[in-house]
């Protein structure tokens, strides 16, 4: 057994986290910053954090992840990292020449109290920032929130650092897609284009973290949200924030500071959440939903109804990020599946309430914890087994020990590909997700059926 | 497929150096140039490689931190210690199973905590008011649930800064719980790379575990294997060879290891060192305190493996062991030779670059040599001068401020337990026969003349190198892998082995031959350009008939 020491009996822990269902802010900030065209993320702290974050993102995407670090030494940890950051900014513009450096902090520079905006200003005054180039920043202490918070903070940093107040309107809608895959961002753009809503999607990692192999390496792929577009987000007619945890802060800031009204939606994963997203786009554009999209929706409804007998009543345990878990739970419930154990490591008061609300008609109690960890989730599973697990790659240790099929979803997925190419948002994404769930359940049925009742057709 | 008969002519190393530093601000260029040298060839004077110096901010280095070297590298592979990371969540999360240290916990009662990540998940309150209380509570909770023999506590960056004392907490908990609890001040900002963390880990092992249990666990030819971390099962392959030769492995540091192995390791009669950089401190201290000599070995490469087994046999000066070792080598070699004969026509003459770690960039050159390939450039991520130039330069290494921060333990002969395994005369006699002790010659002497050695290579220099040398394969880590491959050059990960391996020993060598042949001849590289990209101008159109 891989997790042989996990007891069935649950004891409350006040201090020890075991097998976390979250990681730290900077990795989310780094991911978000990669969604700006021509941007080099920069980690202001010791080099280890940056090395770990780059490695984690690389393992998840199987793509180059470029980011720099201030490489603090003992001296910088005592006297502050100003000299390191100034030197880094100079070196980065000289050697790599990005359009933007997006600086995020780490626990160390936060604990020291380095004032990054002030250091960036000093760099500008000293002529270390070439004309037309930018240094933006986000404060991302990991002793607050999680990687999702870091993503959110960097989205906010983009607005604070780049949006220009002109008082004009550009007729576009901002969409903040949340901490989702490049494929999902691509799909959100496609859906908006189908409906005819001109959008600024930020950040946009499609084409950055699922790029082609051409024989030529581009440190800054021709993809990501252009700086010019980010400068214009304050001129938008509105903002759709996909997900309370990952996207709402930047949207609300645009609302209060730039008078760009915002709506916070759930991630468009599954039927109902996608319906709300499409409905919002339709109302913004003032158009009827194109037939093509209704067709896609119909396909998803068709497939679920065809296969309903296999979804029905299946118990599911999930770990992941709040925005994803909320949308996934709603989707599972809509298929008459039973999401009964749900854990996120990311804190946030509203999470447990939302899940309880979504599952209240399921007719049975649900275990939900935010923040919790995978150790607790595993204990819940030992107490009440499930038919399916949904979560990141670390869930495979539980899957193997308990012999339960796993559908990989979330961050990080270290041992499979596909997430960066095929979306799970939108109706097409719903179809893929439902197909994966179904395949996992049916593969298990095929494996476990006695020979006498082994079925050809399912 | 056409076989290249000769290696491409080497780029002039001085030209290469100029090209590598051309784009840097002047000061950075000067600093980096000191970390690049041309190999002098077998008889040349060994040049000085500036190394173990600070990473330049903003330059995309491959390096990690002290914590990664301490918790990740040295302590991580031991299965029955609960490694509790005191800090915010990330540091623990990223070190969770990502190094691929395999372990054999198949015994029914074996403890194995390696699949778990433990963290105090510090919150802002802990940063403001101190985290010692939470750490104590976490240790108690870990003990209550897991009842481990030992708990190691690892401090990450913010911990040192806010003044939490992991050592005093560890002492208090040791007293309270009656198990071994020990702390490591391995905050990431200490030192300039993982290397500082190795040293801190070595000190901790020596202070808190090694020598705790005098039980002699029996067996003949008792050795410890140091600096082998069982990535991809390397240690399993080496253990197989030891078992077949009748050599007893008392403890491994630290692949496939247990707490009890560490505790009894001082009863061994020889230490063999694989990765010199990460573990030479333990070897030195065990010699001083307990009288156990150490020799450098290398089980990467079939010839190197044979040589290493012979060295161990030579040390014990026992005819039966020598015969057994020869028998094992003779048994293993035919398969190696067969595999090599199959791949050689397709690997000979190709070129490789290795930039990784503190020993692998050297050790793996053996395997490439066996494949008929030339290493045209190599360097370590976090090594010191002795790993490049050999231990004879040790007295001349200046200790800078960053290294001075790392404690040097003062070790003396153990009054009761010191037992010189070999007399000074024995050591001299064996040395005269070619078995040198406490000796590592470093990477440089083994590299061809005018190949390039670069310490702490970064993204920009890697790009230049590839343009200049067009190597057939590049060896580095996960952060480098996909960027290099986008350029059409296959990259072999030598930290994680791309989830393959083992590559140590004889079976490992065979695995590596097959793997490298696959990579340098993979058909996919021929498809990078679409057919129409060869002549993009539309010069003719289909005439439908
Ligand atoms: S110190 Fe903070 S930022 Fe760095 S890896 Fe640890 S948790 Fe993440
Ligand atoms: S916080 Fe410090 S110890 Fe943790 S990963 Fe970053 S550099 Fe390493």
Key structural traits:
heterodimer, A: 458 residues, alpha/beta, Rossmann fold, 5-stranded parallel beta sheet, 46% helix, B: 545 residues, 6-stranded mixed beta sheet, 4-stranded parallel beta sheet, 22 helices, 14 strands
Walkthrough of the structure:
The complex is a heterodimer of chains A (458) and B (545). Chain A has 3 domains: 25-161, Nitrogenase molybdenum iron protein domain (Rossmann fold, 3-Layer(aba) Sandwich); 173-290, Nitrogenase molybdenum iron protein domain (Rossmann fold, 3-Layer(aba) Sandwich); 296-452, Rossmann fold (3-Layer(aba) Sandwich). In chain A, the strands form 3 sheets. Chain A has a 5-stranded parallel β-sheet with strand order 12-11-10-13-14, with helices on both faces. Helix content of chain A is 46%, strand content 13%. In chain A, strand 13, helix 17 (395-402) and strand 14 (406-408) form a beta-alpha-beta unit. With 458 residues, chain A is an alpha/beta fold. With 545 residues, chain B is α/β, with parallel strands linked by helices. Helix content of chain B is 43%, strand content 12%. In chain B, strands 1-12-11-10-13-14 form a 6-stranded mixed β-sheet, sandwiched between helices. In chain B, strands 3-2-4-5 form a 4-stranded parallel β-sheet, sandwiched between helices. In chain B, strands 7-6-8-9 form a 4-stranded parallel β-sheet, sandwiched between helices. The longest helix of chain B has 29 residues, at 319-347. At the A-B interface, strand 1, helix 1, helix 2, strand 3 and helix 3 of A face helix 3, helix 4, strand 3, helix 5 and helix 6 of B. Strand 1 (17-18) of chain A pairs antiparallel with strand 3 of chain B. One iron/sulfur cluster sits between chains A (46, 48-49, 52, 106-108) and B (65, 67, 91, 156-157, 187-188). One iron/sulfur cluster sits between chains A (24, 26, 49, 52, 106-107, 142) and B (87-91, 156-157).
